[in-house]
Amino acid sequence: MKRAALLFAFVMVSHTMFPCLIFVFTPGNHIIVGNHEDWTARDARIRFIPAEKSKLGVVVFDFESEGLIQGGMNSAGLFFDGTATPFVPMDFTGKEVFKEKDFWLTLLQSCHSIQEAVAFIDKYQVPELESVHLLFADRSGQSVIVGAYDGKLTYTWKNKPFQVLTNFNIVDPEYGGEQPCPRFATANSILTSATGSPMETAATVLKQTTQGALTVYSTLFDLTTGSVRVYYLADFSRTLTFNLADELAKGGHDLLMSKQFR
Known about the structure:
CATH class: Alpha Beta
Low-confidence stretches: 1-17
Largest sheet: 8 strands, antiparallel
């Protein structure tokens, strides 16, 4: 995202038209995060930005034509992504205006943990949070959904081996006239009854919650090892796999997904 005053690309239109899904799954010693990016653009891009001075190395996902960060992970194992949710007006009285270029990139390059990320967000005026919820996870195995309700920020912490986020207000699921979300129920059901390989269980969640042609890409992150799987256009027969540390060692570079999945 270019500035904190801009919205995520996927909230430029009705959130019910462009439903994304994010989840964190932490059975045993595994810390796995998955997500779908549902949108109309087809120029999805992966950007690798190495560490520099006090800045952490990061991988971020965006669309080349828009340049707005949709989510990503840093070299400390901090992950975030967001989903569109019903609009909640917020009171930003007393909050600072973020004056640098890119709020979300700065957050990823600066914060090592969920706690640092939450403190960073709480300091500034973040208009996006009137229309999105964000899920943060880190190598501790903890995760939190940051959103808004009743004019203020809300923090919903993971209290079981998984946490799921779709497109309703996590504090009040009926807010904004939202209908029950079948993708949320499907993901919860799969993760509740999970047996076998954690990564394959997470892949099953993605396969059963895709929005078909609307799903541009899907990802699975292992926050412990820094490895990432990427699926493109809801095709789960092909995978782009990389390790963040290995990619950052190559220097700054971008990967256009359409070229990686020819």
